[in-house]
Structure formats: C-alpha cells, structure tokens
Amino acid sequence: MGKTSLANMLKGLFADHVKLVVKVNCDQDDSFGKVWQKACAEVEVVENKSNFGFMPRMRPESRSLADDLPPDPGPDAIRRILQHVGTTIVIFDEFDRLQDARTPRLFADTIKNLSDNSVDVTIVLVGVADDVDDLIKEHASVDRALVQIQMPRMHATELEEIVNKALGVLGVKIEQKALDLIVVLSQGLPHYTHLLGLHSTRAALSASRKRVTLDDVHKGIESALEQIQQSIRNAYQKATASQRKDTIFRQVLLACALADVDELGYFVSADVREPLSEIMGKRYEIPGFSQHLNRFAESVQDQCSKRPARHAGSGFAFAIRCCSRLSLCEACQKAC
Known about the structure:
Helix content is about 50%, strand content about 15%. It is α/β, with parallel strands linked by helices and about 325 residues long.
C-alpha cells in the first residue's frame, strides 16, 4: 500500500469516530493559505436564519468554511476557525510537493498554536521524506505534538498480493517467474508493482491470453519505461552523464538498485560492493566507486540518491530513488 492509499483509508476509517475528516492534495504551486483554502472549501457550514416578517420562520442556509478565511491566513486565523469546528482530522497529501519555503514553517507554527490552545484537531502531513526534518521546518518547538509514522518498503509477499488480487478481479493468471520479476523490479514500492503489473497484463490481453508470461513482463517493462516521468529521465541522465566512455556511472547506479537495503530503503557504501563486482565481472572496493556515490548525492539530490543527515559506519547511507529503478528496468530490458 502506498502513502496516498493509506491516506485515503484514514479518511474512511475515522469518518464514524470524529466529527469531520478532510483530505486535500497539495500542489507545487500551493501556498500555506491556498492549501487551507482547499481544506476549508471541503467543509460545508449550515446555519439557521430567519425570514423577514411578523412571523419569521427559520430556514437553513449553507456556505463554505473557506468563506470565513481572510485573504492571506496565518496560524492564528486557522486556529480561530478550527476551534469552533469540533473534533477534526485534516489530511494534507503530497505535502513534499510544496515549493513555497514559508509553508512548512507556517505549518509548524500552526501545529504549535493548535497544541498550545488545546484545539481538538489532528493534522496529518503525508509526503516523501526520510524523517520529519524533510517535511516540516523549525519543528523542534513542536516535537511533543508530532508523531512520525514511517512507511517501510513492502515485503515480496505483499507485492505479490497486489498483483494476484488485481488479476483475480479480471480472471487472469500469472506465471510465477513473471510475478517474481515484477516483485524484484518493484524494489518494495507498490507504485512500480502497479505500473509493471498493468502493462504486463495489457500485453497478455492484447495477445488474447488470460495468462501473464515472462515475455509479457518484458513487454510491460518496455511500455512502462516509455511512461517514466521526464523529470526522472532528466535526473537519470544527469546522474550518469560523462564525456568519458569508460566511466561506470550507469553500472554503479544499477548496483545501487541491487544493493541490500534496510526496511526504509537505506544502504551503505559497502552494500554496493558485491552487486557492482558481479556486474563488472571483477572485484571492486569502496574507493573504486565512492566518487560515483558522491556524484549521485550531490548532483541529483532530489530524485536519484540522497545523502541524509546520518552516516552508517565509514560510509554514507543513501535512500534509493527512482533513478536506480529506472536503471534496473533498462538493464532488464537490454537483457531480454
């Protein structure tokens, strides 16, 4: 299950237990005020108003809670509105997409304001990050009001279940080798399981078959690569580009995708040694590829490999990003 799927489940799960559950998606052009305008626009306020006359009757009149927001709301304005709503959960999905530098700081101030005034509101920030430092700025003063919930990579059996359940609805079967390849290429991330499973199944159905084979997965990989986001392709090219033909940037990036990782997708330099040696057909030690890892970390920090704040042993810990999976898919495609 991905983070967005979990956020959608939360909305339904708590709907019967709290007065109000609101979920909005953040866009990169959104500001603090705009995302709260989105959230408040989802809330309808119904008030009873009387008609004119000697015997006035009460009539219900509805409006949006967003009508109560000032043009450029701050943390205080948000607190004043929410404290009259009742027990509320507000979910902000894709929070990491926000580009406005002020927004994470204003959210930290808002959370502190709500906590200090005992407002019965829970704010859920959903996004891609290694920890809370990457999502929200200046959070030290609100640590007591924050709970971090990290989503580990899914196990192979869980990824298999995604494919089997989807195919079961269609009445389609899949060969075990084909399923194994989808799981390996997914690297624990359900997005890639859905993507590869979709295109592999389409390949089988296009051939008028209700059984997905290894050949269908190979065709699915080709189709999936054509739909990879251009931003990911740009990051991949930036990570592996070199004027020298004898460089091994692509091979090192592929080794990163094949490296053993922990439950959060981290690996250290030593984990790259074995897969790189196998790819190159000769033994490689850390000094032979450490500059390549540094290049990935520095040049494509957002979308390829990222150097987090902590170290692991004598090497850096890295989070595998989408570029390494692109490298893995391309390598698999060439091997077909």
